[in-house]
């Protein structure tokens, strides 16, 4: 689970770096969400911490998704080959 969260963080950082010049304010929102995700990941120490932090994990991942969508949607307008952003269904 921690590896998957770290992969999400890396993908978000890559998106932010690529979009920084064109999508400044949206990238700032993404950077804030990624910072929260990083803090949440760093707080995971073992399986019991994962269980106790499930709500915080869900909120952090959702914030990253929500921050990435406007960037992806804007990029798609200029480049139709960008795949649609798909949010996880609410649980």
Key traits:
single chain; 91 residues; mainly alpha; 75% helix; 0% strand; elongated
- Please identify the oligomeric state: single chain
Helix count equals: 4
User: Mean pLDDT, rounded to whole units?
Assistant: 85
Total strands: the figure is 0
Our Rg estimate from Cα atoms comes to 14 Å
Task: Profile the largest sheet.
Answer: none
- Identify low-pLDDT runs: none
Q: SSE order in H/E notation?
A: HHHH
End-to-end CA span: 18 Å
Estimated share of beta-strand residues: under 5%
User: Approximately how much helix is present in the residues?
Assistant: over 70%
- What gross morphology would you assign? elongated
Structural category is: mainly alpha
Structural description of this entry:
By secondary structure, the chain is an all-alpha fold. The chain is built from four helices and no strands. The protein has helices at residues 2-19, 24-42, 47-52, 54-78. The longest helix is centred in the last third of the chain and has 25 residues, at 54-78. The chain is elongated and about 45 Å long. The mean pLDDT is 85.
